[in-house]
Amino acid sequence: MLHPNGTSGRAASGPPGPDASAVTRNVLRQAIVSRVLVASLALPFGILLRPEVTPNPARLLWTSMASVVALSVAFLLGTRLRRGLRAQTWLQVGADLGIVTWLAAYTGGPGSQFVLFYALVAVTGGILARVPGGLVAAAGACVGYLALPALSRPLGTWSGESTGMKPELFVTFLIMTGVLAGVLGERVHRTADDLQRTTRELDRVRVDNDVILRHLATGISRSTKPASSPT
């Protein structure tokens, strides 16, 4: 169907608004920035809190920070591709689990000051991938935590201590954290989707109003144009 100005109804309906993956890309980028901020604050403090758990704390600090920064840069470049966002989400969760497990294994195993970072991984999974992401991240965190004794013994870093809570309680804590983070992630994504839909509708209304005003101006100019006298 053509409008009086020759444009189709599809063209006059306005821009389609942000693509469907815009919300996911925005959440991924915020998670990347948050990861760098948390690492830059928590890693130095955690290592300074118990420098005796590793023979070379400065090397561990710089290695872990370099790993986080390198992964964050790679993840940011990945979001610019606008493809494979679901795979990127799970890749970020897996990378977080790997870094936390590596840090904890090198700093005392189950008694490491960094095992609480597993809760942050569960929160990240829930925010990025909603309830399924929170559950998967929590399950991965539980597996990593329970594997710390076997990983730290060959390294000679196992202190024989724990986080102060029984393993089954810590596992329950991680699962609950993942579920609650997933519920929060559902609300975040739903709110972002609603905002995106509202923005698209407002853009469509604005364009429709511009078309109506253009037609009114054209009609007025034609009605006020003096008629030509017959010769």
Task: Summarize the structure in words.
- The structure is a single chain.
- With 231 residues, the protein is mostly helical.
- It has one domain.
- 75% of the residues lie in helices and 0% in strands.
Q: What is the H/E order?
A: HHHHHH
Number of strands: 0
Main sheet summary: none
Low-confidence stretches: 1-18
Q: How many H/I helices?
A: 6
The shape, in one word, is elongated
- Give the mean pLDDT: 82
The radius of gyration is: 28 Å
Instruction: Give the number of domains.
Output: 1
Strand content: under 5%
Class based on secondary structure composition and strand pairing = mainly alpha
What is the terminal-to-terminal distance? 40 Å
Helical content (DSSP H or I, runs of 4+)? over 70%
Name the descriptors:
231 residues; disordered N terminus
Write a brief structural summary.
This protein has six helices and no strands. It has 231 residues and is mainly α.
SSE layout and pairing:
Elements: H1 9-12, H2 22-49, H3 57-80, H4 85-106, H5 117-155, H6 167-223
